[in-house]
Amino acid sequence: MSWHLLMLNVTVKDGERALLTRNGRLINVLAPGQHRLFDPAHALKAEVFEVVRAEFPTARYAVLKAARPDLAAELFEAVETKADEVAIVSLDGRPLYLLAPWQTRVYWKVATRIDVERIDVSRDARIDARHLSRIERNPRSTIVTETVVENHEAGLLFVDGRLAERLAPGRHAFWIASRKIEVKHIDLRPQAVEITAQEMLTKDRIALRVTLTAFRRVVDPERTVATVPDVDAWLYRLVQFAIREAVAGRTLDEVLSARAALDTELRDYVRARVADSGVEVTELGVKDVILPGEIRELVNKVVEAERVAKANLIRRQEETAATRSLLNTARLMEENPLLLRLKELESLERLVEKVGRIDLHAGDGQGLDALLTRLVRIKPEEVA
Question: Is residue 146 predicted with pLDDT exceeding 70?
Answer without folding.
Answer: yes
